[in-house]
Write a structure and sequence with these properties.
The chain is globular and about 30 Å long. 20% of the residues lie in helices and 11% in strands. The protein is built from four helices and four strands, in the order E-H-E-E-E-H-H-H. The termini are far apart. By secondary structure, the chain is an alpha+beta fold. Bound molecules: FE3-S4 cluster (2 copies). The site of one FE3-S4 cluster has 14 residues, from loops. Its cofactor is [4Fe-4S] cluster; [3Fe-4S] cluster.
Length: 105
């Protein structure tokens, strides 16, 4: 799967959402998250992110290794909705993201 890391937090450019052929990039309050089971590893989202927040799981920089779990665990309650557009914006984030100070002063 692909993973969205720290640079997305409080930026949420959303260019990635328009590229994803399976609509598996879901929106939380301060970040977006890629559904690990719905992502088909097409890689279309990765080059369009202006802040380089998206990585294939094996290429995730070590400092952001925890973001793999953040993307997976974001869906603990949501399950596999099968489409981000119909699911809409969630009013929560993974605790790792919630704990961060504002990233865009
Ligand atoms: Fe975030 Fe980059 Fe997508 S900032 S919303 S991962 S285009
Ligand atoms: Fe979509 Fe990116 Fe996966 S475009 S299918 S989230 S690699």
């Amino acid at each position: 799967t692909y993973v969205i890391a720290l640079p997305c937090v409080d930026v949420k450019d959303r260019a990635c959402v328009d590229e994803c052929p399976v609509d598996c990039i879901y929106e939380g309050e301060r970040s977006l998250y890629i559904h690990p089971d719905e992502c088909v590893d097409c890689g279309a989202c990765e080059p369009v992110c202006p802040v380089e927040a998206i990585y294939y799981e094996d290429d995730l920089p070590t400092v952001w290794a925890d973001y793999y779990r953040a993307n997976v665990d974001f869906f603990t309650e949501l399950g596999s909705p099968g489409g981000a557009a119909k699911t809409g914006v969630q009013a929560f984030d993974h605790p790792l993201i919630t704990a961060l100070p504002n990233q865009v002063p």
